Each structure stands twice: as C-alpha cells, then as structure tokens.
Amino acid sequence: MASTKNLEEISQDDLLENGEEEEVEGLDDGENKDPAKKKKKKKKKKKTGAEPINLAGGEPEIISTTDQVQAISVEDDTTEGEEKKKKKKKNKSKGKGPSKQQSNPPTIPIAELFPDGNYPEGQIMEHGKAEGIDERTAKDRFSSEEKRALDRMQNDIYQEVRHAAEAHRQTRKYIRDYIKPGMTMIQICEELESTARRLIGEDGLKAGLAFPTGCSRNHCAAHYTPNTGDTTVLEYDDVVKIDFGTHINGRIIDCAFTLHFNPRYDSLVKGVQEATEAGIRASGVDVRLCDVGTAVQEVMESHEVELDGQVYQVKPIRNLNGHSIGPYRIHAGKTVPIVKGGETTRMEENEFYAIETFGSTGRGQVHDDMDCSHYMKNFEQQFVPLRLQSSKQLLNLINKNFGTLAFCKRWLERAGATRYAMALKDLCDKGVVDAYPPLCDIKGCYTAQFEHTILLRPTCKEVISRGDDY
Predict the structure, then answer these.
(1) What radius of gyration, in Å, describes the C-alpha atoms of the chain?
(2) Of the candidates 252, 270, 399, which has an alpha carbon nearest to the alpha carbon of residue 331?
(3) What is the band of 5 on the pLDDT scale with cuts at 50, 70, 90?
(4) Confidence category of residue 9, pLDDT binned at 50, 70, 90
C-alpha cells in the first residue's frame, strides 16, 4: 500500500534534477544472490562422519555420509543408486520443504503445508553500505555471536511474517497466470482475495488480508480497488499494478508487481523493477533513508520507453514513497523516498520496510482523483465522542473486523454493513477514519510499481517477500 509525501517536503534541488539523466548500470544477477551462502568444496569420498545441515529455520539435522558413499557407483552409466544420491544432494541443498504439495488452484492453507511452523526464509543479503559506517561492519554481522543471539530471540516474529510471505507468494503465483484481458477488475480482486484468505487461514484479526487489493491502471498509480457496481474491464493495452498484503498477528507483508500484456511497456516495467532492486540493495541498518532514494532515482531515470513514436524518460513519482511497517500498522512513521533528498533518519535493527518504487511517463507526481475506495482507522486518534448511532455501529464493525488495518467499501459490505455511507463520512469528518483516494498522474500517461517487504535483522537483511517471479 503506497505512502504519500507532501510536495512541499521536496527540495528545490530535487525538482531541478528531475530532468537529468544518468547512465547507471543495470542489475547484475549476481548481486541478487545470497551473500550469506558460500560455495562449498566437494568433500572427498574418503571422508566419513556426520554433516549438519540447516532445515528452513529449524534445528540442524545430522545426516550420515555413509549412505552417500554407498550410493556411489563405479560404473559410467547412471544407476538407480546414483539417482537416489542425486535426489539426496538436491534435498540437502534446499533444506526441508513443505510436507505436501499445494493444489492447483491453491486451496491448502500454508500452515498445513508447514505443520512444524518453520516457514521458508526469504532472500538473505548483506546490509547496504551506510554513510559514515565502516563497510566491514555489515559483513561482520553474519559471524557475530551477539547478533546471532539477537536473531534467535526474534524467531517467533520472523516465522509469523514468513508465514504471511509464503501465502503472498503462492497467491500471486496463481493470480499472475489467472489475470487476462477482458476480465472485470472486481472479478480479479475477488479471486485474488478469496485465494489469499484460504492460504493465510483467515482468522479475524489474527490472520488475513492487510489491506484492499490495489489494481490501479495506467495513469492511476495506487489506491484503486473497485467498489460494488464498478464494471471496469482490464484491457490488452493496460498497465495494471497489483498491490495486496497479508498478515499473521499483525505482521504485514506489503508487496506489489506490475502486469502488462503489450510488450511496448517492457522498458517502463523493467526500469521500475530495477529501481526497486536498487533500493533494496541500498537499504540496511544505519543507512540513511535519503541515500535509498538517491539510489532509486539514479537507476529509474536511466531508462526510457518509446510509445507511439515518442520517447519518454521513466520518472520516479516523487510524492509517493516506501515506508516502515509496524504491527497492525502499514505506515509506521518512517518514509523511504524514491528521489534524491528527504530524511537523513537512519534505518535500525529489526525494522520492517516496504521498499516500493513508482515510475511514470507523465509528470512524475500524483494527485487525488476518482471515487474513493480505501479507508483506514487513524492509528493515533484517541477517543472521539460520536452522536450518530449509525456511526457508533459502523466503528464497532470496523474495530472488530479490521482494527487499524486498511479496508474498502466491498469489505464493509462483506462484513455485513448496509446503508453506511453517511456513517462512514461522519467518521472521516471527525478524523476517526482516514480516506485514501486513488492517486493519479496526468491522464494518458502510464505508471508502474514494484515493491518488496524487507526485514533488517541483526545479522543480515532478509527480503521476506522474495519469490521466483521477482
């Protein structure tokens, strides 16, 4: 879910630099590889004994190498024993997987696939280089016993957010193949949300969706989800941003991607995805938030897209940004800019961040437009006396079903609310609930978005929502 920033907070230097273009190297696949995992030399067949392996967040399991030696054949042709040996090595390198396979379409809750409560770890990376901090500090975190101990103390929280991440991964893997031009936006959202609810094992405020499914199209960058009666259809020439969240006990995964069907938008989408990866690499403990924005802008503005014979530079949308995430709080106070300038506040250990970037072929700034669908209770608001009985009833429904998590009108109706328009307006007028209208650039332009949730662990940086798709 996007976070906005007032245009007044942007320095004049940023505005002057908006048109500048710098050549920045594209992403190197090697940089995305897990630096914590190092290649191991092959052991000689003579060596015997036991070798520990780490099982997806569980305790090390001791596997005897005797079975491996017995499986080796002196014949050149592949034997049945060698096939078993290869399977053993393959399983050994990946660690323990799910106890059973997911159905297609996915219907089995993630908790049933991982009954031991150990969920897949995300991508592990070193923390980004922080201004004024020794570069070796980040590397030393991997081997520090003190940092490892701090990691273990937070394992319950890590497992909760990994649970939510696995539900997000499996949902989007299915929905990316499901979405086709000609479908209505409501059809897409309802299929995605019903799938995510099944996989997360929806259970009131303990587990479920963290915010409404964003499916903003073209010049609309964020915060659009169809209200009841919306007949909007997805077209072949649309660029649609799919932004949805899952949570376990308020530990939120905020992750988004862009879908397009016409290859002419490839450069736009690629530029924004690479900018997000640059932001992820730059992030880390003690890193200044403004330095992340600098890295994002340099990469994004190095890309161009040609549409109808005209070349457009991919511009970062400067009044949209990433954000820190707290328990049951999608915007926890810190903002991660996607342009130069901004806060010099530093990232800290055990913070969660949504690193999200938006690119546009338009002006590179958004404004409120269209019919509002997204709402969220004000996290900071204290008790406010309400005179209307309908407002009290609606607030009770919101507290019971959503708490301080975002919701939309479709979800209010799903929870049983009827004739709530006046009550909802009253809650917004009194500041109890905040409205988040769709955010749009100029009409006729195209926007793209990519987003991942990262966790700044004491030992490393974990891209929790990383998947095979992006």
Answers:
(1) 24
(2) 252
(3) low
(4) low
Residues 324 and 291: their CA atoms lie apart, in Å, by: 15
Distance of alpha carbon 371 from alpha carbon 101, whole angstroms: 41
Please tell me the predicted confidence (pLDDT) of residue 138.
66
Looking up tokens 């949308």 gives 317
- pLDDT grade for 99, boundaries at 50, 70 and 90: confident
pLDDT of residue 258: 98
Tell me which range, 3-12, 141-150, 366-375, is most confidently predicted by mean pLDDT: 366-375
Residue 247 burial (CB < 10 Å; 0-12/13-18/19+)? buried
Tokens 């199209």 belong to residue: 217
CA dihedral 399, 401, 406, 408 (to 10 degrees): -120
Is 86 a residue whose pLDDT tops 50?
no
Q: How many angstroms separate the Cα of 156 from the Cα of each of 57, 153, 198, 348?
A: 11, 8, 22, 19
> Going by C-beta distance under 8 Å and a sequence separation of 6 or more, which residues neighbour residue 71?
81, 82, 84, 85, 88
* pTM for this entry: 0.80
Distances (CA, A) of 292 to 47, 279, 288, 343: 47, 5, 7, 10
Q: Are 356 and 2 in contact (CB under 8 A)?
A: yes
Does residue 151 carry a pLDDT above 80?
yes
| Structure-block tokens of residue 90 | 């393959």
